[in-house]
Design brief:
With 301 residues, this protein is an alpha/beta fold. The protein contains 9 helices and 9 strands.
């Protein structure tokens, strides 16, 4: 008798910086989404695929739900909200705080309008005592009828196998939507651009990272050599930011490039020659044409 196969789409939602990208990368076992300690790191829907003998899960990592301050922010919130009715399961990530903040309460209020089952994932349990965790679970039980509540640590991997079991058993019977060896539907150029942006997020001052975008101008393999030549532009919104991104005698740009190159080489499985430039595009986050040029689906704004 043929083994029953389950498949489906699972979205991760939550406030910015709650660990959605870290969890997705941990579950899939590969670095698909970029990570940083700065809010609103993820800008687009990022799909990653986990295939096992009896199930396939397509994870959709969405931007954090927050109060938007510009067109890009509006786009990010709509991307997150629109996925709620399009998937089979919603994973809502929260931090293990005794006080449930307004941000989490707002997201829960959005869930009242959907029919999709919601699993509450309490992340970062490595930072709290077990007794505290039980109190937190009880407080969330009163707010919404969650299908399951699963405490985990995406950082250490604690209890992530339990979460995977819960999710896989909730999936409907279905086909393999993607080949077994495929782990993401993102184009290589987009993954490369995001890795460069991740390094900039790690290295730059607070006010600068949200105002940057990365565009890959060219990406070509050299003939008869295991080397990929990549030319990329980091766009920012102000001349003063350009000077900071470049750094004294180009020191900051070299750091960004050096760190990004190592991750890009792991991604592509070959040596990489990376050239970076910095250009100013003022107020690009409010410019629909520029957003479209950077790969955002502006029809949803």
């Amino acid at each position: 008798m043929e083994k029953e196969f389950r498949s489906g789409f699972v979205t991760l939602i939550g406030r910015p910086n709650v660990g959605k990208s870290t969890l997705m990368n941990t579950l899939v076992g590969e670095k698909i989404a970029i990570m940083s300690d700065k809010p609103q790191t993820t800008r687009n829907r990022i799909q990653s695929i986990l295939t096992k003998d009896d199930f396939q899960i397509v994870f959709i990592d969405t931007p954090g739900i927050h109060k938007p301050k510009h067109k890009l922010g509006e786009y990010m919130v709509k991307v997150a909200s629109n996925t709620l009715n399009e998937v089979d399961i919603v994973l809502m990530l929260v931090e293990p705080s005794k006080v449930i903040g307004q941000g989490d309460r707002f997201i829960i209020s959005q869930l009242e309008n959907i029919k999709t089952p919601v699993v509450l994932v309490i992340n970062k349990i490595d930072t709290v005592e077990k007794e505290t965790l039980l109190e937190i679970i009880d407080s969330y039980k009163d707010l919404y009828n969650f299908a399951h509540i699963v405490p985990i640590s995406a950082y250490t991997g604690e209890n992530c196998d339990r979460l995977l079991k819960v999710v896989s058993e909730m999936l409907p019977q279905g086909p393999k939507y993607f080949p077994e060896d495929m782990i993401t539907d993102q184009p290589e150029k987009q993954l490369v651009a995001e890795l460069i942006r991740e390094k900039a997020l790690h290295l730059l001052q607070k006010e600068i990272p949200h105002g940057i975008a990365v565009e890959i101008e060219s990406m070509n393999s050299r003939e008869n050599k295991d080397i990929v030549d990549i030319q990329a532009v980091i766009y920012c919104e102000r001349d003063s930011h350009k000077a900071i991104i470049i750094g004294k005698q180009g020191s900051m740009l070299k750091q960004i490039g050096s760190r990004a190159r190592k991750d890009i080489e792991r991604l592509l499985g070959s040596k990489v020659f990376l050239e970076l430039w910095v250009k100013v595009k003022k107020n690009w986050r409010n410019d629909l044409i520029k957003l479209k040029n950077f790969g955002f689906d502006t029809k949803s704004i």
